[in-house]
Structures are given as structure tokens and as C-alpha cells.
Amino acid sequence: MFQSPSVVRFKGLGPGFWPVTIVLALLSIANAWYFLYGNIDWIMPGASQPVADRASDIDGLFKFMAVSSGAIMIFVAGYVIYFAIAFRARPTDSPDTIGVQIHDSPKLELWWTVLPALLLILLTALSINVWYKIYFGTKAPALTMEVIGHQFYFEFRYPGLKTSVFSKTEPMHLPVGVPVRLLITSTDVIHQFWVPEIRLKSAGVPGLVQSLNFTPLRTGTYDIACAEFCGADHSLMRGKLVIEPVATFNKWLDSENKTAAAGGGAINLAGGSAGTGKTLFAQKCAACHNNPPTPFDQKLVGPGLLHITDDPAHPTLVTGKTPTPEHIAEILQNGFTGPIGTMPNRQANGLSDKDIANAVAYLTSLK
Amino acid sequence: MQAGTSTTHEAHDAHDHIHPPPEGFVRKYVFSLDHKVIGFQYFFTGLLIMFIAGSFAELVRLQLTDPNGAIMSHTAYNEMFSMHGTAMVWLVLIPLVTGALGNFVMPLQIGARDVAFPWLNMASFWILPVAALILFSSMLWGGPHAGWTEYPPISLADGTAGALWCLAIFTIGISSTMTGLNFMVTIMKMRAPGMTWTRMPLFIWATFATALMNMVATVALSVAVGALFLEHVFSVPFFDPARGGSVVLYQHMFWFYSHPAVYIFIIPAFGVVSEVLPTFARKPIFGYKMIAFSSMAISILAFTVWMHHMFPSGIAPWLQLPFMILTYAIGIPTGIKIFSWMATIWGGRIHFTSSMLYALGFLITFTFGGLSGIFLASVPVDLHMHGTVFVVGHFHYVVAGGAVMGFLAAVPYWYPKATGRMLNERLAQLGFWLFFIGLNGTFLPMHWLGLEGMPRRTATYAGFAKAFPDAVFWNQFETAFSFLMAAAIGLLAFNVIWSLRHGTLAGINPWGARTLEWTISSPPPYYNFKKIPQVFDRPYNFDQPLPYRNTDNELDEFPEFGRVLMPIPQPVGAGA
User: Fold this and answer.
1) Is the Cβ pair A232, B78 closer than 8 Å?
2) Do B566 and A95 touch (CB under 8 A)?
3) Within a 10 A sphere around the Cβ of B318, how many other Cβ atoms?
4) Taking the C-alpha atoms of A149, A150, A153 and A157 in order, what is their torsion angle to the nearest 10 degrees?
5) Which chain B positions have a beta carbon within 8 Å of A95's beta carbon?
6) Percent helix, strand and coil across chain A, each rounded to 5?
7) Which of B60, B239, B349 to mutate to test the interface with A (most CBs of A within 10 A)?
8) Along the 367 residues of chain A, how does pLDDT read in single tens digits?
9) Domain span including residue A293
10) Potential cystine with B547: which of A33, A311, B536, B574 (Cβ 3.0-4.6 Å)?
11) Which residues, at least 6 apart from B570, have a Cβ–Cβ distance to it below 8 Å?
12) Which helix or strand (DSSP H or E) is residue B222 part of?
């Protein structure tokens, strides 16, 4: 037999509805105040002092979203908790107590469809504005350079610089206040060039060149990270970006050019230190070559390097050439792919000129 | 009662004879055609794989307690997070929310004796352990290393393991497509007489929307991983730019499936919440039509937003805009749902069962995940956030805070119907608090870590920790809280097994719920409904008698039951 159940009764929108609403509104305002006027550097790095022009645009959009979605979150969570407490079942209820039997309210539903839609339309307008600035808003770039991703380092090519700069051994340099365009690509797998303080990132996609345009606004040293998974050592694919005054930047470019001209590609091996080379070997070579060095046949990944210059069984290296110090330096510099595997180049191993000189000094001392 | 039978539609006459139950262990429990048994099979298989994939996640978290990597090599770490993601998405979430919940609940809720194609259903399930074996066997060859997305060209370095990964995903895709087709036909053709589209329970609407996506989207994934497989094995250069392929092409095909895939596991959770909230608030669902409509709207919009995963990845700038706007647009139906659920509990009489706690927790965590998704949808802000642990935080708020919370709300809710016994309520509620606190503690700090500059999928973060020293503390904090979630899942598994024997007897309708499955005995007989019921109205009007006729006489045959939380509404005409 069905008996009509007893329906709960309460006044208005429920006990304490308006005070709770006021508290939630105040919390939303506090949240807005914090994002607009507080220091949010612990959420967005360098938010208080933008490092690039696009950073302040993107932060503005971020703050608008943090303020509006923060308010939505506060109201949703606040009301859910409040409703749960205010409309909880009581031990004194008769077992057939039920809630108010409301099925819908077209007016209310219209509001909560239209208001979010309007908010999203506003957000769309703001987003398109910043989007336009990012892709089409930069004045003609005064510096156009290339960023090439490799496993696991970035290569930077500057106009007028004959040699590349590699993130493992040297920071990237940019002049402050000069509009730059980075042309980004990759030679092996997908990488992403990202400087958190600049806020922009772009994938280096093999077979595709993408550009990033911005103007650095503050001098300083910032981190570069690869933001797309690119292989075993993805997490180590990092670098530094130095933003410096134009004069300093030009001086740096000059010195890079001189180094390149003086060296002419070959490395000055005089002054290499076998002792430093030994430490370096333990750090950078021991992953593939036995340390302490063993005879040729005792391989790890690569062959053992003891007696590399005076092994009667192997008068030549796997390259087929005599093991002169110059030739060993050449292998360290350019890498080599041969019958027993691949030796990575200096960029992949992160070897400076000095490092190579030291390593050669150490290796040739192994008798 | 007899009058009711004679008005049954002709189409249903064919179903009015009852097949004898199968005999023998194998036909009953292994190669069963019964949707309920298949539901259990999905449930226990999914739970088992969840343990494996979850322990991978804990290894990942342990590694990150030290900025230089605490426990394993880079390669091992990469394998762990790749296996965690792959197994959780394809072998845990989709099988649990569509396979387990959909299979067990959907035919009962529409008053059917089984799904439309029981043989197909059985085949769908048995593909799952095969795919799982293929996927886990890939670990013998070193496992996949490029994340659950396996983007080429980096994934091509995985060799045999990568090919096996493709094979496993292709295989499970067949299962998804067949289940989608099966459920769509079942819902379209096998509803009880009188159950019009607008009288269906909302879980059925959700299952329908999910089935539609499963059927349409999975094909794109199969093509993507099929092409990747050919590239692995026969070196066909689909994705190799040096030989005329396109790297970005894979991402398009992958996300054309994988964005809907997120909705494939979130929409059934929507359905669960739409059932649990009215039952325990003792109130009709608010805005039935808008909730049903928004499920369908989301499932269709889901196909139009995939490029928001690829804003910095090599698409033309102008192409970013429509995908940004369409992604924003999904916020509108999602908002409608959230607000309707809030209005559902307003003015109710709320019983805090573990199901209800999970559903209320879902409202908070899912809203958070939805809102952080709006940040990622905005092209300029995404250019900063893409590829960081912010994305990981957002995704887990949606998946763990949405899909898994919805699933965890469903387990105590339908467990009494499935087994005839109640879950231990104390343990289940403890599980909720562990899970809810663990979830927020694990994934909240990821948001600011990501914004500060921590890329995702990094085995070490010494460089980042130098720039942002708090990173070490927050990563250890996340790891500690992640174990609370693991404990909650462990507790659930214990509870599920312990209560099989020791739970109090449930009776037909322990929650005083109003959908059709609560009008038959617990557990339901092999044939579900002795007579196919007739439906007169939506199931959510708590001030009315149940809108069913022809529910046969089982309601009078109450077993002695341990406790009845709420009075059971009587069906139309019962005792009248």
C-alpha cells in the first residue's frame, strides 16, 4: 500500500542560505584580490616583473581565469558542502521523509546556461586578443635565430655566427629590448623549447619549422627546459638563457666569432691536463667505456680504451685511422658511427674545447 | 496484472520465454553469456590490473621523492609511467566504467533480460585479458617508453615492445567498438515497454552517449596504432618526415580518439552521480532533460576539440582558434550538469552513505578538474602550461577525481544488488576519506609545480629544483598522499571480498531507490525479470508510487534483510 511520504519543510532557500552566500562571495573577492594585487610569483615565475612582453599578456589572461574560475570553484564547493550539511537527514526523521519534490526550473536553467556562455564569450575575446599578439603582434624581428632540438640538447644558430651554440656547454644569449624570432625545429624526435619565465613554448618537430616571437624585457639568467618527452634523458635536456644588454650581447657574439676563427674547427690540444681528463672520463665516458680503462676487447657499450695509442693488436682505431691525438680529438668532437656502434658527438656529451683537450691528454697517457 | 502482460509490445513477445540457466562451471562463470557475470568478470579483471598499474604509479611517485631520482634509472622510470598510463586508460578505466558498470546495470535498468548480442558481449570481455597479456608481455622486451600516447618518432625506438603496445591497443579497440555497438542496439531496441527515451534513467543516457563515442571514435585509434604498427614492423613511413611522412599526423588521429576517450570514462561517472544523488537526497533529479541533453551534447562536441592537445605541437595558428572556442563550449553542458546536481541536493534529505560521499566529493574534484581544463583550452595560457605537470594534475583531477570517484560511488551502490549483501559501510566511508584527501594532496601541488616550470615525464628534476627549491618538498608531499589513495583502493578490494561472506543481507531495495533493477531480488535471477515490466514515468518521483506495472510478485517475497535504510516505494497497483 502506497502512502504519501512526508516532505521536508523549510523557509526560503534554506536555513542560513544568504549568510553562506555572502561568505562565499567574500571569499571570491579575496581570491580575486590575491590574484590581481598579491605576489603570485610562487605560482607563475616572474609574474611580478615580466621577463618578456608576451609574459605580461599571458599573465593577464591567466589572472582573469584564476579570478573567475576561482569564484566558480568557491561557490560550487561551498554550496555542495553547505547543502550537504543544511539538508542532511536527521535521526528524528520518520523513515519516509523525502526532500522537496522539485523537478526543474526553466528560468534557473536558462540562467546557468546563459551566464557561463557569456563568461566564455568574454574569455574567447580576451584569448583571441592575446593569441593575435603572440602570433602576429611582434614588430619586424631584429634578431631571427634558429633553435634546433637534438637528443638531448638544444642547438642555437645565430645570424653571423659560423658555429652553433650548444645548450650543454654554453647558455643561449638574447639581447634585452630587441624583438626576436626563434625558428624552432628538430633533427631527431619531437622536442619542445620552453622558457617558463617567457611563458611561450613551441615544439621542435622534425620536418617542420615553427616560430616564436617575443621581446625580452628583463636581463637575467633563466632556465630552458624541453617540455615534450624525447627519450631516456629527457629530464636532463635543459639549458640556460642569458638575457643581457645589447652591447654585452654584441660583445659575446664577437668573442664567439673570434673563438671560431682562431680554432678554425680544430681544437688546440696543448695544455690538456691528464688529471682533469681522468675526472672527466669518470663523469662522461664511464657510462659506455670501462673505468678504469681496460684493453680494447673488454667492452661495456663501447670498447675498452686502455692502450688506445699503443695496442699492437689494434694499430688503427675502428675508424680505420692511426690513433694520433688529433684524430682522437676529432672523434670526441664529431662522434663516429662504425661497426661496433655509435660514439656520440661533443654536443651530446657536453664537451667544451678544454674538456676535449683534457680527455685527449688523459687517453694518450694510458700506456 | 494480467492486463499488463497483454499490452506488451509485440517486439517483446520474443523475449517472454525464459531460457534455462547454463550448467557447468565453464558455461556459468568462464564463458558465460550472462551480462551480470560478464560485468563481474570486467570488474575483477579491471581491479586486478588497477593494482598493477597503480603500483607502477607509486614507483613513479617514489622515484620523484629525490630530485636526482630515488629508486630507478631513467629508462625504467619512462617504462613505468608509460605502462601506468596505458594500462589505466585502456585496461582499467574503460573496462570498469563501460564494461563492469554498463554490463551489470544497464540491462537491469532498462528491464531487459540481457544485452542484444550476448555472444558479442562475451567476446568483448575475453579480448580484454588477451590485450592485457600482450601489453604486459611487452615488458619482456623492455616495454614502451614514450608515455601512454606513444608519439612517433620517439616511440619507434621501442622496437618489439612498441609493436606489441600497438597490437595490444588495437586489440582492446576491437573490444571497445563491439561493446559500443552492443550497448547502443540494446538501449535502442530492448527497453521495457513504456520506457520512452525521456523515461530512461540518466545512467542509461550516459551509457548511450558513451556507447556512441566508443563505436565511432575507437576506429580512429585503431587506424593510428595500426599505422604505427606497420611503421614498427615493416618500416612503412607514415610518420617519418625524412621519407615523406608526417609526425603530427599521428597526433591528430590519436587525439581524435583519445579526447572522446576521456569522456568515455567520465560520462558513465556522470550517469552514476545522476543516480546516486537523487536516491540519497530523496529528491527527483533536477533538470532531467538538460542532464540527458548535455550528455549527448558532450559526446558530440567531444569529437570537435582534439587539437587542443596540440596547440604548440605544429598546427597552424588560425587552426588553434576554432578548437579553443569549441573546447570552451564544452564548459557549457558540463556546467549545466554540475549546477543541476547541486540543485538536486538542495532541499533534499541527505543520507551520508559511502556512495553519497563519493558523489558529493565528485562534485568538488570534478569541478576543479573541469575548470583547470578551461585554462588549458586557452591557446595563450596553454603555450605556458602544455607539457608540464599542470596537465598531469588537471588530467588526474578529471580521471581520478571524476571517473574513478564516480566508479567508487557506484561500487557500494550496486554491490548489494550484485551480491545480495551490503558492503561494510564503515570501511567504505573510511575509504572515501582516504581517497578524497589523498587525491587532493597528490594532484593539487602539481598545478603550481607545473606553472613554475616542471615538465611532465621527467625521471629527475635536479635542474628545476635548483630554480624552485620547494619542488622537492612538494614532490615528497605528493608521494606521501598518493599512498592514501592506494590504501583506499586496497581497502575497497578487501571490503568487496570480505563482504561477499560477511556483509549484512541487502534485500531487494536497501536504498529505497527507484530504478527497475531495485524491483527484482538481489542478486537478480539468471533471467532478471520473470515478466518484462511496464514503465509509466521517469524513475525519480519520490512522492509517487513506483511507475512500474507487471513487476511480478517478487516484491512480496522479501528475504529477511539485515537493514533497510529507507522505505521501499510500492509499484503502481501493488496491493491496490
Assistant:
1) yes
2) yes
3) 9
4) -50
5) 566-567
6) 40, 20, 40
7) B349
8) 566 778 888 888 989 999 999 999 999 999 999 999 999 999 999 999 999 999 999 999 999 999 999 999 999 999 999 999 999 998 888 877 889 999 989 999 999 999 999 999 999 999 999 999 999 987 789 999 999 999 999 999 998 887 889 998 899 999 999 999 999 999 899 999 999 999 999 999 998 999 999 999 999 999 999 999 999 999 999 999 999 999 999 999 988 887 766 554 567 777 788 888 888 888 888 878 888 888 888 887 788 888 888 888 788 887 888 888 888 888 888 788 777 777 888 877 888 888 888 888 888 888 7
9) 274-364
10) B536
11) A1, A2, B545, B546, B555
12) helix B202-234
Residue B463 and residue A72: Cβ atoms within 8 Å? no
**Whole-angstrom Cα Rg for chain B:** 24
Chain B residues 231-290 with CB within 8 Å of chain A: 241-242, 246-248, 281-284, 286-290
For B425, the 3-state DSSP assignment is: helix
User: Residues of B163-191 as b/e, b for ≥16 C-beta within 10 angstroms?
Assistant: bbbbbbbbbbbbbbbbbbbbbbebbeebb
> Which of A43, A44, A57, A49 lies closest to A243 in space, CA to CA?
A49
B38-234+253-549, superfamily in CATH? Cytochrome c oxidase-like, subunit I domain (1.20.210.10)
The grid coordinates of residue A226 equal 624541453
Residues A14 and A56 in one domain: yes
Residue A267 lies in a domain: no
A218, three cell numbers: 628583463
Residue-range domain boundaries for chain B? 38-234+253-549
Are residues B321 and A128, on separate chains, in Cβ contact within 8 Å?
yes
